[in-house]
């Protein structure tokens, strides 16, 4: 059954890139956004399965490479944000790494862009849900992968459309940057999004944690701590 | 050798409690801060090793309980923030769960408070580094555990005084709240705090990840992605 999935590399403090680069402010490659992004994704750039898709030589054949290969294999179609699609168009070249239909969420209508190796870019102007539905129809029973960026992943989560999230947690603290799980999730007071951890893979330089998204739920105080009275508020920072 | 350690339960979006409660705004137990806090620490409250220290009946004897027991066992002394110490003073009662000397970082001088079971509270008014040094002397070769709250843990990390951090990552998204790794770490542009993951323990409802803190480092762009040119900026959100 087709699932809607997303996977992102994040720092320990939840960033997938450094502080957002403004186009007016020099070359992206020299920006703090890029410096953070390349630190966070270093494990991917080292992985043979990623390098092979990019047409790069070398790389490591290890657990991380298996994780990358598995992600590519599971995706029958992609949904992508406009900023990512624009940024990638030239560097991905004639044979982008996706090898599957990509549906780009955008406000600007544009003709389908066909590339070699099975990748196509279809520009969807009537919203995220529509892009996901079109991707689902194209996915041939495989998963619909939300390719990014973080803002799109967050919107899909917020809309209740995400079935599975995998975080690749990298042991670095950036302090500032572009945060995946940012404040605009529209959660009410004492409301949360509950998930279930379904898989943890520990590699030396990154921890891969996969979650099923269960959906929104109220935060209800239970009384398990009340064996001899109320749960201790003084304990609130002890754990 | 004595290490300075900290461990905190955090949500997937990095919060250790809900939105901070103001004292003027009703009972803490009814606050969003508490609702988030008790959701995040539910695995602890269920653990037999924690319940035993609190004098509560029941609890589960499982991996989570082993993790709690291990944390208590490793700590020879604690350093604690003032807000946590104040909040805990009454609920912890005559026999607090620490069973070791606790050094409270505060601006208000106060006599040492002796409790049963080996717990004492010493109020340190000359700063965090002094509190850690006093705790180190008292720890008898065991570790100095930064008991919390999050603000104190962050200050110790920022000051370069933390050797080891363990995060108990709970699969819930709160959207807002008190964030452990918040923006006031004073990291420069393209500077990060690097860590090494040393242990990952996966329990059904929480993932325990332990890190050694290596310290501050510049984010340097390497050229591993440049097999056929520059690393692809378009790929910045793909992973």
Explain briefly what this protein structure is.
2 copies of one chain form a homodimer. With 239 residues, the first copy, chain A, is of the alpha/beta class. Chain A has helices at residues 32-40, 42-45, 48-54, 63-74, 82-92, 128-138, 150-158; strands at residues 4-11, 15-17, 75-81, 101-105, 113-114, 120-124, 143-148, 164-170, 172-173, 178-179, 191-203, 206-218.
Q: Can you give a write-up of this model?
A:
Two copies of one chain form a homodimer. Chain A is an alpha/beta fold. Chain A has a single domain, classed as Dihydrofolate Reductase, subunit A (3-Layer(aba) Sandwich), CATH 3.40.430. Helices cover 26% and strands 31% of the residues of chain A. Chain A has helices at residues 32-40, 42-45, 48-54, 63-74, 82-92, 128-138, 150-158, and strands spanning 4-11, 15-17, 75-81, 101-105, 113-114, 120-124, 143-148, 164-170, 172-173, 178-179, 191-203, 206-218. In chain A, helix 5 (82-92) links the parallel strand 3 and strand 4 (101-105). The longest helix of chain A has 12 residues, at 63-74. The first copy, chain A, is globular, with a radius of gyration of 19 Å. The interface between A and B is large, with 101 and 101 residues. Strand 11 (191-203) of chain A pairs antiparallel with strand 9 (172-173) of chain B, so a sheet runs across the interface.
